[in-house]
Design a protein that fits this description.
This protein is an alpha+beta fold. The chain contains ten helices and 20 strands. The protein has helices at residues 43-51, 93-103, 108-121, 137-149, 167-184, 195-201, 219-224, 229-234, 263-267, 333-338; strands at residues 4-12, 18-27, 32-36, 58-63, 66-67, 78-81, 155-159, 187-192, 204-209, 212-217, 241-248, 251-254, 257-260, 280-285, 290-292, 302-314, 319-326, 346-353, 364-370, 375-377. The protein has two domains: 4-233, Rossmann fold; 238-377, OB fold (Dihydrolipoamide Acetyltransferase, E2P) (Beta Barrel), CATH 2.40.50. The longest helix has 18 residues, at 167-184. Helix 2 packs across helix 3 and helix 3 (108-121) crosses helix 4. It starts with a strand and ends in a 9-residue tail after the last strand. It has a six-stranded mixed beta sheet, with helices on both faces. Strands 13-12-11-14-20 form a five-stranded antiparallel beta sheet. The structure holds adenosine-5'-triphosphate. Adenosine-5'-triphosphate binds next to helix 1. The site of adenosine-5'-triphosphate has 13 residues, from helix 1. GO terms for molecular function: ABC-type transporter activity; ATP binding; ATP hydrolysis activity. Pfam families: ABC_tran (PF00005), OB_MalK (PF17912). It comes from Nonomuraea muscovyensis. This is Multiple sugar transport system ATP-binding protein. Residues 4-235 form the ABC transporter domain.
Length: 386
């Protein structure tokens, strides 16, 4: 097992592309860390630098306190699982899993025991004598995992290992990977572009954008306290609603009405020079912070507005109601990246309602929202002010 430290690590490719900048994180022994972010943000490059498949341009990589920058991949005692599985088609499952142990020239009896054990952990025992061509996608993925765990490496690195599987299998495999990682207690770094995978799998998330870390923390922390608009828009599905607002003395003027500047919303501006209080902000409200007003009784500290439901999706335990609002007003370059808001046009809002809601498509609906659940963002820097 291992502690992995990336100490201000960067990667600049020969053509000048800076793929990773000042990546600084310390991964504890046994921790499960997820690298997540949109395509091209530098996730795979970071993982490849840990594995030794890419050179490190700046900073230091340490495993258990030992500098690894110049160590060959095979000397790092790390196992990697790829999206493509990278199995040998002419070998059986048993031979595929045994392969790293054969390379290490272990005794045949020991190899057999280790392979049987790994196959047992991954429910692969009935398939040991089949070749990969005769397995389902999920089974192939488990063989790739088997080959990684069989030699008890110091750490696992996984690059989008579930993206070739269908949605249902992905959910199943997510649970198995999570359970397996906890049972083995092996330090794991897992790359995905899927925020749901990131939210459900890891102890901590490292959210990246364009080579830079945006926020590091446990999934719930990123959800509850996104550091900026990008994190707010990336984490959570459906995404956080983002609305432009004008700051006018005691309230925020928005397309869903005036929101009084009280409590924590007021504190967001406290202690600032009045000249520095932004005239415009972006208001962020999670879909579940909206409720059907007819189901809310005697609740203080909230606001309400009426919108017309454009679309309704019944999801079983919840109902998603979509609204279009005429907004105008504040433009933010950050909004263009994260929201469905088309510059100057109407913003689409989504509310995650109780299934008891009588919301109907094409009908007006009064919605209630809790002012305590509101986030405020600076439209210039994107920073969360609350
Ligand atoms: P994806 O989710 O699409 O796999 P990613 O977040 O893993 O994306 P990387 O593959 O790490 O992103 O790529 C980061 C950036 O580095 C991208 O802009 C990519 O085009 C660039 N890049 C990757 N490999 C090279 C290379 N060999 N030479 C130059 N640029 C590269």
């Amino acid at each position: 097992m291992a502690e992995i430290e990336l100490d201000h690590v960067s990667k600049k490719f020969a053509d000048g592309t800076v793929a990773v900048e000042d990546f600084h994180v310390s991964i504890a022994d046994g921790e499960f860390v997820i690298l997540v972010g949109p395509s091209g943000c530098g996730k795979s490059t970071t993982l490849n630098m840990i594995a030794g498949l890419e050179d490190i341009s700046g900073g230091e990589l340490r495993i258990d306190g030992v500098r690894m920058n110049d160590k060959a991949p095979r000397d790092r005692d790390i196992a990697m699982v790829f999206q493509s599985y990278a199995l040998y088609p002419h070998m059986t499952v048993r031979e595929n899993i045994a392969f790293p142990l054969k390379l290490a020239k272990l005794d045949k009896k020991v190899i057999d025991e280790k392979v049987e054990h790994a196959a047992g952990l991954l429910d692969l025992t009935p398939y040991l004598d089949r070749k990969p061509g005769a397995l389902s996608g999920g089974q192939r993925q488990r063989v790739a995992m088997g080959r990684a765990i069989v030699r008890s490496p110091k750490a696992f690195l996984m690059d989008e290992p579930l993206s070739n599987l269908d949605a249902k299998l992905r959910v199943q495999m997510r649970t198995s990977i999570s359970r397996l990682q906890k049972n083995l207690g092996t330090t794991t770094v897992y790359v995905t572009h899927d925020q749901t995978e990131a939210m459900t799998l890891g102890d901590r998330i490292v959210l990246m954008r364009a080579g830079l870390i945006q926020q590091i923390g446990p999934p719930q922390e990123l959800y509850d306290h996104p550091r900026n608009l990008f994190v707010a828009g990336f984490i959570g599905s459906p995404a956080m609603n983002l609305l432009p607002a004008e700051v006018t003395g005691d309230c925020l003027r928005t397309a869903i009405g005036d929101i009084p500047l009280r409590g924590r919303l007021r504190r967001a501006f406290e202690g600032r020079d009045p000249k520095e209080v932004p005239k415009e902000v972006i208001v962020g409200i999670r879909p579940e912070a909206f409720e059907d007003a007819s189901l809310v009784h005697d609740r203080e500290g909230g606001g309400s507005f009426t919108g017309t439901v454009d679309l309704l999706e019944s999801m079983g335990p919840e109902k998603l109601a979509y609204f279009t609002l005429d907004t105008g007003g504040v433009r933010s370059r950050h909004l263009e990246d994260v929201a469905t808001d088309e510059a100057g046009g109407g913003a689409q809002l989504v509310a995650q309602l109780d299934p008891k809601s009588q919301a109907r498509r094409g009908q007006p609906l009064r919605l209630w929202f809790d002012c305590e659940a509101i986030h405020l963002f600076d439209p210039e820097s994107g920073e969360n002010l609350t």
